């Protein structure tokens, strides 16, 4: 099976490359230098020439705050480029696996979101991602959309690495405590994607699914778990005091959902792969980062 990964230098792209090494799939990895998804005509031509069986779209404009003032770029990458990829996949009879986000919801529910819940994005980023989802569905291609949340790993820029950097510089850190979500270890997403392929290639399991951490926490609790883990496994031993604050005390250009929890039950039922154990993921990421510094 020939698989094309778009966005190979991103956090998930790097995890996919690592996890695919233990499979027999023929995988082609492309970054923006090889296929710029924002260049619609060129991207369509290059994907068509490769003629893959599966396209995994790990590209996205993820600068949530910047999207508020740079809506044009967010819409291009998260909506128009995705629509172009989906149309191309339909034309070459190719399966599209696309990664989406919890930001398609408004965050007002008092329970984890499932796939049947009504979407209501509150930000430019969230709307652009939802429009990308809708474009895939209207393209009539074979597809799998995976919504995930609070992604972290040893790769790229993410909350864990930000906390380690700030924690090494300060004795106290103020972290928002009234936003709750499902942290998700990026290598688990990569493994989950690979686990879906046998089912999808048999013609089953297509649609929209949630895949995220099996338990939830606030950002402040997430930060505390990161710092406690550095001590428990003897990596860095960074232990600043985490001061819980409200969202009002940390205003941002883009509104963050109060509730980003995602229910992964349906994904596990269809594909037999459990949600991410993010506490194990923290320890794995810390160990990987520790190796990189030695």
Summed up:
The protein is of the alpha/beta class and 294 residues long. The chain has helices at residues 11-20, 40-50, 64-67, 71-91, 124-138, 159-167, 186-201, 219-232, 265-271, 278-292; strands at 2-6, 26-30, 54-57, 95-101, 142-148, 151-152, 172-176, 180-181, 184-185, 207-210, 217-218, 241-245, 259-260. The model has no long low-confidence stretch (mean pLDDT 96).
Could you outline the blueprint of secondary structure elements for this entry?
Blueprint: E1 2-6, H1 11-20, E2 26-30, H2 40-50, E3 54-57, H3 64-67, H4 71-91, E4 95-101, H5 124-138, E5 142-148, E6 151-152, H6 159-167, E7 172-176, E8 180-181, E9 184-185, H7 186-201, E10 207-210, E11 217-218, H8 219-232, E12 241-245, E13 259-260, H9 265-271, H10 278-292
Parallel strand pairs: 1-2, 1-3, 3-4, 4-5, 5-10, 6-9, 7-12, 8-13
Antiparallel strand pairs: 8-11
Helix pairs in contact: 1-7, 2-4, 4-5, 8-10
Structure description:
By secondary structure, this protein is of the alpha/beta class. It contains ten helices and 13 strands. The strands form four sheets. It has a six-stranded parallel sheet with strand order 2-1-3-4-5-10, with helices on both faces. The protein has a three-stranded mixed sheet with strand order 11-8-13. α1 (11-20) links the parallel β1 and β2 (26-30). The radius of gyration is 19 Å and the shape is globular. The two termini are 37 Å apart. 45% of the residues are buried. The mean pLDDT is 96.
């Amino acid at each position: 099976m020939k698989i094309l990964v778009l966005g190979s230098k991103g956090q998930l792209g790097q995890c996919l490359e690592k996890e695919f090494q233990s499979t027999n799939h023929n995988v082609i990895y492309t970054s923006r230098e090889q296929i710029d998804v924002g260049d619609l005509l060129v991207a369509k031509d290059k994907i068509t020439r490769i003629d893959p069986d599966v396209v995994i779209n790990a590209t996205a404009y993820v600068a949530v705050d910047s999207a508020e003032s740079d809506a044009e770029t967010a819409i291009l990458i998260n909506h128009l480029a995705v629509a172009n990829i989906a149309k191309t996949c339909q034309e070459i009879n190719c399966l599209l696996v696309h990664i989406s986000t919890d930001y398609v919801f408004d965050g007002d529910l008092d329970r984890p979101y499932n796939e049947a819940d009504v979407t209501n994005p509150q930000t430019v980023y969230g709307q652009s991602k939802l429009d990308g989802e809708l474009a895939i569905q209207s393209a009539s291609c074979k597809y799998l959309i995976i919504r995930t949340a609070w992604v972290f790993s040893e790769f790229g820029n993410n909350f864990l690495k930000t906390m380690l950097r700030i924690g090494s510089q300060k004795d106290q850190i103020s972290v928002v405590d009234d936003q709750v979500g499902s942290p998700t270890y990026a290598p688990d997403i990569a493994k989950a994607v690979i686990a879906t392929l046998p089912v999808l290639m048999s013609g089953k399991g297509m649609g929209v699914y949630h895949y995220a951490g099996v338990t939830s926490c606030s950002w402040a609790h997430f930060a505390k778990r990161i710092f406690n883990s550095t001590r428990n496994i003897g990596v860095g031993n960074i232990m600043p005091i985490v001061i819980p604050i409200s969202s009002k005390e940390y205003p941002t250009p883009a509104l963050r959902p109060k509730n980003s929890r995602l229910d992964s039950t349906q994904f596990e039922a269809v594909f037999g792969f459990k949600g991410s154990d993010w506490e194990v993921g923290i320890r794995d990421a810390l160990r990987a980062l520790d190796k990189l510094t030695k």
